[in-house]
Amino acid sequence: MYRENPVTYQPRRLRFGAFFAPFHNDRTSPTFAIERDLDLVQWLDTMDFDEAWIGEHHSGAYECIASPELFIATAAERTRHIRMGTGVSSLSYHQPLILADRIAQLDHQTRGRIMFGVGPGQLVADAYMMGVDPQSLRERMGESLDVLVKLLRGETVTAKTDWFTLNEARMHILPYQEDLEVVVASAISPSGARLAGQYGAGMLSVAASSPKGFEALADSWAICESKAEEYQQTVDRRTWRVVAPIHIAETREQARQDLEYGLMDMFNYFHKFGGSLFPQVKDLDEAIEVWTTGGLGAFGVGLVGTPDDLVEHIQKLQHQSGGFGSFLSLAHNAANYEATKKSYELIARYVMPHFQHCNDNRTPSLEWASSNADRFMAEYMGGIEKAFKQHEDEIEAKKQKAG
Does residue 312 contact residue 225 with C-beta atoms inside 8 Å? Predict the structure, then answer.
């Protein structure tokens, strides 16, 4: 249910980025797919996007990045400004000290352009292959995060759980950043929001546009704040990121047409991986209808339209949540690469300026110049006439001197 809540936090410059699971059909070369994602991060950097988040998955074919750290290390060499986050590191599958060391090294290699996104692990198939009980993922995440935040602060940690042991463990190289940003993934359950509050971390709402995730936005932040108060931590909406799948073009018709490339592939993937939870559809029109109304589970309800439609969509998310610091577009490859790049270009040209107020002084400046145009043009023409007269006077003076 949409709630017109007051926007209690509205930054002067809302940050924009992309969240890469990523999704590539199983007919595409994985080498090509990874290279294409690296190219897209470069494009986002060129278009002045702020963030790119890179996922970790180990099954299902479509989400084909196993190590966000390896991807980020390469992407950092090809970009100048964009910050990159693990989106997310699945804490349940990693020995905490080893993961902390990898993140710290990556922070040095990128000169502090890293954000450490953490989660329990999303795909049950991944957990099954590693012999991890899916019901234990969130508990494991909590145990891991508890020691990770201490290690990253330079503390010495001794801890024993039923899946890892640390004996006087400490990092010999701390992160490049003094305060490496830790961000906790939150979907529909309250566990992510609780952990974010407990450790004073940022929050990454990966299911913000799904019906249940959208309805839970305001409650998620309330839970986060409540836990922060309980643990004497501080949380800031500036570090809250919301994710939604979108595709825009110059017209709604063009946006729909662009999805002929790959939206049916997306539905096929979700149906195969999620079984009866996700509907089978007969054609593109039905796929767009399902995606833009009921959505695809945690993948969310898609926005297919124009820059103006996206502005309205983000405003609804702001009102539902009360405000956040970053909007992330879910990278889905439902459109071909050129149409995808065009979608991000339109965000940069028309949507970002609306929420970043970068043109606030430009329009008044034009209006001021317009209101004074007659006076300014008269002075301009007067200057030209004066120059002609000075030139003529100089010639006349030379003639008189010569005569």
Answer: no
Q: What is the pTM of this model?
A: 0.94
Residue 166 pairs in a beta bridge with 159
Q: Of the CATH numbers 3.55.40.20, 3.30.450.20, 3.20.20.30, 3.40.50.720, which one belongs to the domain with range 15-356?
A: 3.20.20.30
CB 36 within 8 A of CB 4: no
Q: How confident is the model at residue 276 (pLDDT cuts 50, 70, 90)?
A: confident
- Three-state secondary-structure class, residue 51: strand
> CB 25: neighbour CB atoms within 10 A?
15
Structural domain spans, the chain = 15-356, 362-402
Cα–Cα–Cα angle for 258, 274, 219, nearest 5°? 85
Q: Which amino acid does the sequence have at 77?
A: E
Place of tokens 């199983």: 26
The pLDDT confidence band at residue 188, using thresholds 50, 70 and 90, is: confident
Contact 190, 184 (CB under 8 A): no
Give CA–CA dist 13/355, Å, rounded: 6
- What 3-state DSSP class applies to 238? helix
Asked if 344 and 258 touch (Cβ cutoff 8 Å), the reply is: no
